[in-house]
Amino acid sequence: MQQLLSQQDAKLVERLRAGDEEAFMELIRGLNPSLLRVARMFVPTAALAEDVVQETWLAVLKGIDRFEGRSSLKTWIFRILTNTAKTRGERERRSVPFSALDTEEGGFEPAVERSRFTGTGHWAVLPRAWPEDRLLAKETLSVVERAIERLPLSQQQVITLRDVEGWTADEVRNALALSETNQRVLLHRGRAKVRRALEQYLSEEQ
Amino acid sequence: MSIGLAHLNCLELVELVTAYLEGELSSGERKRFEAHLSACDGCTTYVEQMRRTIELTGTLRMDDVSREAEEALRDAFRDWKGR
Questions:
Q1: What CATH number does residue B18 fall under?
Q2: From the list B11, B52, B73, which residue is nearest A121 (CB)?
Q3: What CA–CA distance (Å, rounded) separates A25 from B81?
Q4: Would the CB atoms of B60 and A29 count as touching at under 8 Å?
Q5: What is this structure's pTM?
Q6: Lowest-pLDDT range, A13-17, A139-143, A155-159, B47-51?
Q7: Residue A145 confidence (pLDDT)
Q8: Alpha-carbon distance A171 to A159, whole Å?
Q9: How far apart (Å, rounded) are the C-alpha atoms in residues A24 and B65?
Q10: Closest CA to A74 of A154, A139, A165
């Protein structure tokens, strides 16, 4: 196991197996927000998402002795979560089908409106530098948050895991079963829309 | 991914930004991308805005674990340990 797992993961697994309560609580504090965010994408209510996450942690405890370390601990836990969430989502019959991932692939979505460019593909209306002093304002952050909430599910999942939670491309690909290209396309489209929302907001008079 | 890079224009560049930031362009593509950037204020601003967008997204607050959830999990752990 130690060969494939990071040292940090290996140590954590060892502590969990030894019944170290603090190790478990540390793991929960680190991962719970990500798990909740992602669970929320599969089930219709926040309360159900909490149930799914709770169920995931119980499954983690139940399975930790059999964890073989063929993926990182995080990836393994995340896989338990998505399986649990999908099962629960189907039971609730109101969740967004995971196959929504595939149906959003079709059709080209330009990162920037075509009308911003000339016939030869050069900027007709140059993007203007953003006012630094407004970038970190609370209102600006809520523009980002709302823009992400409006994204199609698969883009929302990828941008949340990559840019909010800081996962690597490979971690996201594994967790969501995406090809390299799909992961990048979803990230690209999601980021482009968030940028557009920011541009729109920051170009308004204050 | 190889859209007429020999004649990379702004419209094409904006579609390559993610691949560029992810380090997924070939070295030839990257050179052409950067050559275009060094001659184009609009695209320089655009790439800078994408970087700021990513940065801002990264500062979104993550919710802490609720006390109830934490206590429930602590209990679950103790049950599991006493199995």
A1: 1.10.10
A2: B11
A3: 14
A4: no
A5: 0.77
A6: A155-159
A7: 92
A8: 13
A9: 13
A10: A165
